[in-house]
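ok posting inputs for the NAP job
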Amino acid sequence: MTAQLIDGLALSKATRAEVAQRAAALTAQGRQPGLAVVLVGDNPASQVYVRNKVKACEEAGIRSVLEKYDASMTEAELLARVDALNNDPSIHGILVQLPLPKHIDDHKVIEAIAPAKDVDGFHVASAGALMVGEPGFKACTPYGCMKMLESIGMADLKGKHAVVIGRSNIVGKPMAMMLLAANATVTVCHSGTADLGAMTRQADVIVAAVGKRNVLTADMVKPGAVVIDVGMNRNDEGKLCGDVDFDGVKQVAGWITPVPGGVGPMTIAMLLVNTLESAERAHPVPASPAPSRGR
Ligand code: NAP
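and the output
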C-alpha cells in the first residue's frame, strides 16, 4: 500500500483564503482584525517563525504589529507591553514568540495575556476550556491536525483508536483532548512509555509530536492507519524532516502528512483563524434591523 498524502499546504491555502474573505468583510466595516506578535531576543528560528506569521497575516488582510525587543528586555517591561496590548481595542490576538530569554518566565508572560486575545491557545484558561469543552482558543498545531483529519472525512473518530506520541502542553496534551472531543479512544505516549510500537500498532490514527527523527517506523504502523507528523527536525543533509520515517511508513499507512508541507502550514493557518474569530467576537456583526411595519 502507498499512503495518500494529506496536503497541508493546499489545505492551509484554502483556509487562509476563507480567512481573507471574512477579514475583508470586517475591514469593510472599519474593524480590521489585528494580531500583535512580540519577539524578544534574536533566536534565529524564532525570527523565521515570526516573519512567516507576519507575512501570512498580511496576505489574509489581518493587520499585524510586530514588536521586536532586545534580549535584555526585563520581565516587568514585557509584562507591561502585554498589558498595553490587552487594553488596545485594535489588537484581537497577542502572540509572544517562545522561547523567551532565560531571565523571563514564559509561563508568567503567557498567563498575563487576556484569554480573549490568547490566539496561540497556551493560556491556562484556554487549556481548561478545551478540557471541559467550553469555547476558547484552541492551540494552533493540534487544531490544524484536527482540520487535516476533517479534510479526509475523519471529523468524527468514534470507534477509532488514536495514539499521540508526546505530551507537551502546546502539542501532545491539547492534541489528546481534541481527539477525545472527536470521540476517539486516546492513548498518550511519552519518553516513559515502555513499548511504543506495541501502542502505535493498535492505532487507527497516530500523531507524532516528539522532536526526534525516525521515532515512528513502518514496523510500528498498522496497515491503513492515518499518520500525522508534527515533528520538525533536520536530517543529515540539514533538510527539514519530521519524526516519522516517511519513506518507510508511507508504504504501510493509509494517509500521511509530509514534512515540510504538512502540519507546519496548518499551524499558521489556524493562528489566522483564531485571530479572525477573536475579532469577530469583539465586533459581532450587527443584527439586521427588523423590517419596519407598514402603517
Ligand atoms: P517537547 O515539549 O520537547 O515534547 C516532546 C515530547 O516527546 C515529550 O512529551 C517527550 O516525553 C516525548 N518524547 C521524547 N522522546 C520520546 C520517545 N523516544 N518516545 C516517546 N515519546 C518521547 O516538544 P513539542 O513542543 O511538543 O514539539 C514536538 C515536535 O513538534 C518538535 O519537533 C517541534 O519542533 C514540533 N512542532 C512543530 C510545530 C509545527 O507547526 N509543525 C509546532 C509545534 C511543535 P516526556 O514528556 O516524557 O519528556
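notes: The mean pLDDT is 96. The two ends are 72 Å apart (CA to CA).
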